[in-house]
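Re: the 229-residue chain
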Amino acid sequence: MVASKYALLAILGRGGMGQVWRARHVELGSMVALKSLDPRLAESELGRGRFLREAKAAAALNSPHVIQIHDYGVDGDTPYIAMELLEGASLAERLVEGPLSPTETMRVVDHIARAIGKAHEVGFVHRDLKPANVFLCRNEAESSPLSRKFWAVKVLDFGIAKAVEGLADVAATEGEVETPSTETGAVMGTPHYMSPEQVRGKVVDARTDLWSLGVVTYECLVGERPFRG
């Protein structure tokens, strides 16, 4: 149990920030994806701040192409986020099967662009767009989560999103968005998808997300990343 209201049922995945569970709200009976912060990061003010910022960033975006946040809280010393439970597979999992068709790629890119466009409107730069952070929601008529047929794309993980303008209450300096193990100004992101200015640790704006989207688009069409190094 988490916060006396979420029953953890099965682990969905683990990452650098913590782990995600399939969970059930015991009073409502609804299913959610519950993300809890790694206890080691929970001990750090920077780690907790980044986790809360992820929840606030996603919650601020009223878009069908951004994962919806239902709840945030702290259970004991461990922060958690309750999100909508998605059915399907990540774009990274889908690309293991091979490239997408131009039509499929156009749909994926359109949906991602709608999500990051909304983020940019309210002053957020995602900074970590990559296939692993793009989810293909399955058409309920399809039996396989890796089916080539899907009905919506959602952008996940705003853990290193940066507020560049607006939303002053969740704005942060460059140093504040780093993990506790990095120094102020350290490079954040996934190297193969980062713009040159992001790799160099320079101040970035919405254009860095467009670069990352270009890399993702190339990978969808070709089946490999444009840059190996």
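The chain is about 30% helix and 25% strand.
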